Amino acid sequence: MHRTIPTIAALAIAVSTLPVQACGEGQFNMGQGMRYQGYLAPRPATVLVYDQDPMQRRSIYQGLNRAGHHLTVARNADDLARALRSQRFDVVISDLGNSDAIDAAPARLLPVVQRRQRNEAGIRSRFRVFLLDGASLGQYLKGIDQLVRGTLK
Fold first, then answer.
1. pLDDT tens across 19-73, in order?
2. What one-character DSSP code corresponds to residue 76?
3. Is residue 12 part of a domain?
4. Is residue 29 one of the residues assigned to a domain?
5. Residues with Cβ < 8 Å from 41, sequence gap 6 or more?
6. Which of 16, 80, 104, 109 lies 20 to 30 Å from 123 when distance is taken between CA atoms?
7. Structural domain count, the chain
C-alpha cells in the first residue's frame, strides 16, 4: 500500500511530460461543475476581419480574442487597405463577395460563404478552407488553425 502512492505519482508525472498533439482547438473546463468552458488557440495568430457590420458576430470575435488570437476588424475598404499596408496578418477573414478586394495570398484568406454557395465548383477548387455563414466559434478556430498550420510548414 505504501509503495502504490509513490508509483502512481511517478506515473502521473511521467505521463504529464509526454508531448501532445492538438486537433485545431483546445477546450478547457474549470471547476467541479464544469460551468465555465473556453477555447484556447494552439497557434495564436494575427487575424484581420473585413466585416461591415461586426456587431452581428461580436461574440465570435470576442471568443477569438479570448482564445488567444490578435484580432483587427476593418469596417470599410479604407480601413482594410490601411490595415493590410501597416501589418502582416496570418489570416484574413472576409465574406466571399469581398474577397477580391483583399490583397492577401489565397492560402491566408478564410472566406465566409453563404450556405447556398457551399457546393459551387469554384469554391472548393479556389479555397482549401472556408467557413459557412453562421459558423460557430469552434469552426472559426478550426479554420484559422488549418490555415496557420498550413503556412507554417
1. 444 444 555 555 555 555 677 888 899 999 998 888 888 999 999 999 999 999 9
2. S
3. no
4. no
5. 25, 26, 64, 67, 68, 69, 141, 144, 145
6. 80
7. 1
